[in-house]
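During the no-cost extension, the postdoctoral fellow (Dr. R.K.) reprocessed legacy sequence entries with the updated structure-token encoder. One reprocessed record is reproduced below for audit purposes.
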Amino acid sequence: MKRNPMTLRGAELLRAELKKLKSEDRPNVIKAIAEARAHGDLSENAEYHAAREQQGFIEGRIAEIEGKLSTADIIDVTQLSPGGRVVFGATVDLEAEADGKRVTYTIVGEDEADIRAGRIAIISPIARALIGKSEGDVVEVTAPGGTRSYEIVGIRYE
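Re-encoded structure tokens follow.
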């Protein structure tokens, strides 16, 4: 079975979502289905069909999260001793060589990645270029938009 790396924070967020789905969303949709059934003819009952569709989404998401958690290799970066190097779970401050613009990324598992939130997947070109590097190193990143150079100006393990 393939193990998927996941940060402790990512696992906690998935567990919280799973708890909400099971303790709030699932009972609410079951109640909505029961109420819609009470209205009679199910063939033309839009509320019933909408509630059943919502139930399918909830059950699918529960199964998806349980699957992700069952194959997760949870890594608590605060317990590692990376010796100042960029590792999985590290938060890295970069400065673009071209224009001095600063960006911050946290290297996470594929399921946690969200570029808008500054979380990049371990398999992304930027993360692959950063792994094993230290503060002060300059990395070349080849991405779909072209090659860019960044200086690592900070590394944190949060």
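The chain has two domains: 4-75, 77-156. The first helix runs from residue 8 to 37. The remaining legacy entries will be reprocessed before the final report is submitted.
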